[in-house]
Amino acid sequence: MIERPDWDHYFMQIATVVASRSTCMRRQVGALLVLNKRILATGYNGAPAGLEHCGEVGCLRQEMQVPSGERHELCRGLHAEQNAIIQAAVHGVAIKESVLYCTHYPCAVCAKMLVNAEVGSLVLADNYPDNLAKKIFAEAGIGVNFIV
Question: What share of the chain has pLDDT > 70, as a percent?
Answer without folding.
Answer: 100
